[in-house]
Amino acid sequence: MAAHAKVRRVVTSVLSLLLVLTAALFAGPARQARAADGWWNPTARPAPDSQINVTGEPFRGTDSAGKVRGFVDAHNHLMSAEGFGGRIICGSVFSTKGVADALKDCPEHYPDGALALFENVTGGADGHHDPVGWPTFKDWPAHDSLSHQQNYYAWVERAWRGGQRVLVNDLVTNGLLCSIYPYKDRGCDEMDAIRLEARKSYELQDYVDTMYGGPGKGWFRIVTDSAQARDVVAQGKLAVVLGVETSEPFGCKMILDVPQCDEDAIDRGLDELYRLGVRSMFLCHKFDNALCGVRFDEGTIGVAVNAGQFLSTGTFWQTEKCTGPQHDNPIGLPTAQANAMLPAGVTVPSYAGDAQCNTRGLTRLGEYAVRGMMQRHMMLEVDHMSVKAADRAFDILETSNYPGVISSHSWMDLQWTERLYRLGGFIAQYDHSAEGFVAEAARTKALRDKYGVGYGYGTDLNGVGGWPGPVGADAPNAVKYPFRSADGGSVIDRQVTGQRTWDVNTDGVAHDGMVPDWIEQIRLSGGQGVIDDLMHGAESYLTTWKATERHDAGTDLARGASASASSSEWNLFTSYRPDRAVDGDRGSRWASDWNDDQWWQVDLGAVRRIDRVTLDWERAYGKGYRIEVSTDGANWRTVWSTDSGNGGLDTARFDPANARWVRVHGAQRGTQWGYSLYEVGVYGT
């Protein structure tokens, strides 16, 4: 009785927080040796093990235009069972002890799932489930079970065999969720979890290699540059890219608005991640941190996550009216469940319905991190950034023409789509229902055609999101088994693991092995056109990555050059001379007198061919201004102008022009003060 009472108290203390907060996140066995009947089949596979149920050689090589073919899963979490304290996601991607050890439930789920707190509060079961995995799998994995392994290696193999050629494995955890969950077998430090998940990813690669005869011979290949990835895809194998999605990267959380990291910690963290092989990452996720404000979760989920935000940071989200068409998600009204998560006397605030934007954008440290990623040629994930943070991040990327920007699972404001494509970035859509996926793909089809890009999907498997459910065997888009893979070279039948057979029509997307079936359902729902765009996805992702690696911002022709201005604001303690805008120090600035008609100009020292000017405004910005150029310092012509400037970072692009002098000529101030610029950059063709 005493033990049961204790359990009830534990359940009561964590149930409310888990209810929606977590739903928003995210010597071996005997082997049967045989002669390989194709390069894609192992010479030895664990016995017993899951079936693959795909026959035929996986396609390899390039198309007639020299481009790689295949799908890209731009957002998956192979190793999340190692994060969150080790007991949120039950079951492993692999085990040297075999499938029965890998696909087993968490110990507290036995005998009937009554103590499976995470599973029960996230809706996967009504308080009970059969915990037995191998060989029966009565209740899991399932499309609505958020706590059970969905990425067993053989299921990932089936996705590869069905046409997937690039997989982004986002290393993921959440320190707060780990700390409040009563069951854990390891610490909650987020960076420790990231290190462990990276190590386990390489161990998975070794595990697959052993089935194919040794190092480098398996189909699962972790890649660290785009050329290596292209080579892997050309061989018909799966190129695996490591990413990071966590709430406190480098320990950069915020407590009572005080950052818990500095620039040195960011540099050390980025260097360490790069050494681990990480090439893409999110700077914030779910909770505001020292780097950026987050894009809110919506409705009741948002209320619960906001309570988690308070527990993590000591502050609730703060909102303001949005200044543009983009907005974060509307937070729901406070609930008793959310308030029960908080200390006595503390309640979740209400928010005005017309104030849907996070007041927190990209912080000074966040800007430092973005620029640090650019220096290391890493790709920035923008999906969980508030629109204010994403806007500033886009501004920074645009000043340098930096293409390394990714939206991998439908969390970016849709109105940023063309801005991202214009830079050269890549977009993937969340693993929605086939009909929903087709509808969203159709909405953005014209932009993909305009920029000549492919499309991807982000399954977010093991990411606590929920996945497409069954459509029914008689649905118009019901898959008829067996069916041909998208390239036509393989035959795909129902997937069998142990005693369980999965059918996408009656089971939905229960695990990664069902992705080829889901893609066939997309074809039946939307036709071959969307499949063609998806088959072009791997090429587009690798194109973005290659451009990121090769990026050169160019030489700032204005840095350190002679500058002058119509006026400079006088201050007893600080100089606002014109040269302060070209000294490379964002802590200094030029400022004009307080009237509209003012100018600032720079002498490049010789006539140069230029096509871009970047302006980093202080709060005193220009609403209406123009960029003028001259070859003699006397005759000027306008190459770019605006009457709708809004401050921040501006990038003025224009047809290449010959110029020795470049002038920023203000016509209308955006504030009561004059014009003030931290830095002006001038770039040539």
TrEMBL record:
It comes from the Bacteria. Residues 550-685 form the F5/8 type C domain. Residues 1-35 form the signal peptide. Keywords: Signal. It holds the Pfam family F5_F8_type_C. The keyword Signal applies. This is F5/8 type C domain-containing protein. It comes from Kitasatospora terrestris. The lineage of its organism: Bacteria, Bacillati, Actinomycetota, Actinomycetes, Kitasatosporales.
